[in-house]
Amino acid sequence: MGNTNDNIIELKHINRIFEDGFKAVEDFNLEVKRGEFVTFLGPSGCGKTTTLRMIAGFDMPTSGDILLNGKDISQLPPYERPINTVFQRYALFPHMNIFDNIAFGLKLKKLPADEIKKKVKKVLELVDLEGFEKRSVSTLSGGQQQRVGIARALVNEPEILLLDEPLGALDLKMRKEMQIELKAMHDELGITFIYVTHDQEEALTMSDKIVVMAEGKIQQIGTPEDIYNEPKNAFVADFIGESNIFNGIMTGSMQARFAGGLFQCVDDVPQGTQITAVVRPEDIELVAPGNGQIRGKVTSVIFKGMHYEITVQSGRYEVVIQNTKSAEVGSDVGIKVEPDGIHIMLAENHTNFFHVDMNKNHRLEFNNNELDVSLTQLIKGSRRNENHELLDEHGEVIDPDKIHIVAAIEPGDIRMTDNTDDEQVLVEGFISNLIYKGDHYSYVINTDFGQDFIVNDEYLWNMDDRVGLILPLDKMKFTVKK
Ligand code: ADP
Ligand code: MG
Fold first, then answer.
1. Is it the case that residue 306 has pLDDT exceeding 80?
2. Is 104 exposed, middle or buried (0-12, 13-18, 19+ CB in 10 A)?
3. Distance from residue 53's CA to the centre of ligand 2 (Å)
């Protein structure tokens, strides 16, 4: 493609393996258009900062190319790249006033004094701090300091501005204000923004293009609408907005079975295909019991300002609903989803997601089995008191009902046994479907737990066989939601 297109920056097969062997970024490929607002979105530790540092020139890829306007810039030191970075906490010089802080780089470049003055004045206007030249850093609020940080990057007139969680240190109200201002600044300046955040809402509201990352790899690249409406896999669906995610199977033409019910959908996927179904909470309607596809009991209702978040327990499935109307805790309801509210995904790996509880003993429990997993490691900042109760970061005893833990395990990591007395068996069930996948069989197990599990096994079992499932703890991944 070269330089004939309007890409300002291209990353090609970028890998970054740290000296200790850790792969922080893997086969990262991205094209950024001139003037675009691109956001790297992903959980902490997924490689966002590492990627940004390579673009800025503070770090070098282990392999792969970074092209700027079609030219390889791997040999260019940071200060020769037309790129500036705004960090989460901008290191302002506390002993200098605002003018000197912003003018610092320009003075090093030995620009004439009146030109420096003009440029500083202009960027101060841009960040809405006109007249602040003489003020000292210590008199500014966090939000104002961050604006000075942005002004200091903008004064160099970079072609690309990198922003690494620039609003992360601000309170919610200030963050919302700055989001709007940054977006306006981007539109006004016309320069390319590459923005890093772990906040999905921030990414959705600000970006032209979102790059969703997990564990050093790109999961999906798309517009906010693409990412929200058509998530490519369960990770993206789970990370972007609240989602209900179920393992399931196609039972007919545009009909799927999941969450213990039969649903009409709009995706024409062959019968028998194992699927992941994603349903957004706002796409679910509460109706009279019996009128929907499944029924359940309301277990909690939380007012969220614009809507109610209603949780319904249906068998073993927990369903989260957003509705402008409230519901009564303990009432029986029907759950109804229109066909276009159901997103069917064919992830090549059908990760099994299931809920595990924190029990009265403050241990992790699944299907009446205590799991030997350290909750203090799972829940950030927690510790145990002398009664072995779990305390949160403020030293308060954690209420087990307030903690939701989702476990994930890959179908290939589950083992099946016909010896259901085996101590390692965590749940039992019947084989309700099997598909030959070339080098293994993929099974749907209808478990007594009430949830279907997908299990890959190299051996042929029979339909309706009763099996025990062994879920090795070291293969499970846990996500804590409060
Ligand atoms: P993010 O910005 O998405 O939170 P980072 O890019 O900072 O993530 O880090 C990605 C991963 O690389 C993390 O697991 C981090 O611990 C690891 N990492 C970062 N720098 C180094 C380093 N110099 N050596 C080894 N591992 C590192
Ligand atoms: Mg980071």
1. yes
2. middle
3. 10
